[in-house]
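[[Encoded backbone]]
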Amino acid sequence: MSDQLRAILFVVIALGVLFIWGHFFKPPVPPPNPKGTEQVAVAPQTSVSQQAVAATPEHAAPINIPVVQEAQEKAAVVESALYRVQLSNRGAAVRSWTLKTYLDDQTPPRPLELVNPDSAAQLGWPFSLLLADPQLEAKANSALYQVTLGSANSTGGPLHAPAQITYHWSDGHLNVTKKLGFTQGYETSLDVSVTLDGKPLPAAIAWRGGFGDKAVAKASQLVSVFYKENGKTTVLAYKKLGVSGNQSQPYLQSGPLEFTGIEDQFFAAAFVPDGGDLSLWHWTRQHTITVDNKQENEPEAEMAAGTAAASPLRMHVYVGPKDLTLLSKLKPPLDDLVSFGWTSIVAKPLFYAMKWTHKYVPNYGWAIVLLTIAINIPMFPFKMMSWRSMQKMQKVAPEMQAIKDRYKKYSFNDPRKRKMNEEVMEMYQRHGINPLPIGSCLPMLVQLPIWWGLERVLTGAIELRHAPWIWWIHDLSLKDPYYVLPAAMAIAMYAMTKMTPQTAVVDPAQQKMTQWMPLFFAAFFFNLSAGLNLYIFTSSLVGVGQQYYLNKADPLPTRSKFKNKKKKNDAPSS
């Protein structure tokens, strides 16, 4: 049989099978609707705010939601080797979150508290709810929840991680459940469900009342909100939070976001979704403080992480230090929270070099000293280049001065001044002198990004927080309280300037400016970190030692010799 005949035969057989099957196996006829009933079309999905306030339709069957609430306020404490968290069943919120291995700046120091109870009592507590309807939100955040502890944590005392706590409350319409799972590390799982008359509502978990170490001056102004979207991390200072022109009005940064949270200089609370969508709301509110018996308003950055969709909220929260090594090991990694800015290409190698040195020298101050020496030793050959260039310049100084004297009567804009520059360049070529001061400039050009990078490391790396050096230096990330290091740095820089011989052609005004430069540096560095001042002071001491060696091993001609040589070569005036 040909292919065409096979195809025709296949079509005939298929049609015959379909006809026979439809004749003998007819589908059953559906029974008619009972009398008095009618089919109800499914209404389209309403908006978030409409869902929050919509009543149950008359034709829908009533939903029986039992009332669940507690008679009195109860506290629960969860502890691990790293933290101590106190929660209240009023609003199922956090009242205290202390980090045991970090101390604050108070006297005497205490374990660092990340929750500010004064502002939180006015503005709200961490882990409270953010809902579309303010009335429902206020009701959920003031209600007394029933508490259920994990079976392994029913001893009645503080719970020891790993631990689980479930908070549940309902008034018969609004139904809220929060499940918290504490690990022995800094991560906590969070599962939140909010329904109204059985319908799920969008919800977010807020961090209210500020964040971080309140013992630091102007701590609230150091707090910012961050989020990561499409691989880029954005940090918002407290002045940029909320809707423009109304900072207290929450602004929605819709997702999906990789993570979001709130941070200060050294610590962070990061909210990471567990496979779902995540959005961010951020705003700023004022709370009242008393300073010198006067009431003042202080801004507090606040945020909430959640979903705009009506679905349960599942995520985990990292509350702890911005430790680069620790954050990089999380899944997903949160190492973007330690940002060195545009100096990262220099700052990160410096950071890892200091950490490596700290393994063998358990003092970050001495680690900075050793790192400074290690950086300055490779710079010595360039200093030798500068020294050789200075020697050659000394030899041709009389000839250069004679050229300048011949053209000094001409003004700067006189075309004949160009002839002077041509003679000077010809002299440089004849004596093999490079007119560009590469040897002298390169060490300074290399040092500048190191200074900037080290400053970002000292102000951003948690390892340098409260890191002591000797005697009066108890925190290398803060300024020297007695300004000893800036003064010593100025003296060392001035000594190095005085030890460096100047060429005879240096302008006196320029020479005075060079001598006063160390004082300008000291004034600028007075308010910078003690660690950076220690680096520059050590670098200046190394420079003094190198300059002393050059002066002894291969000295330049003294100024008096130059003056005598100049007088001998001067032609008699006509």
Summary: The first strand starts at residue 67 and ends at 68. DSSP finds 14 helices and 21 strands in the chain. The chain has two domains: 67-339, 360-568. Residues 360-568 form one domain.
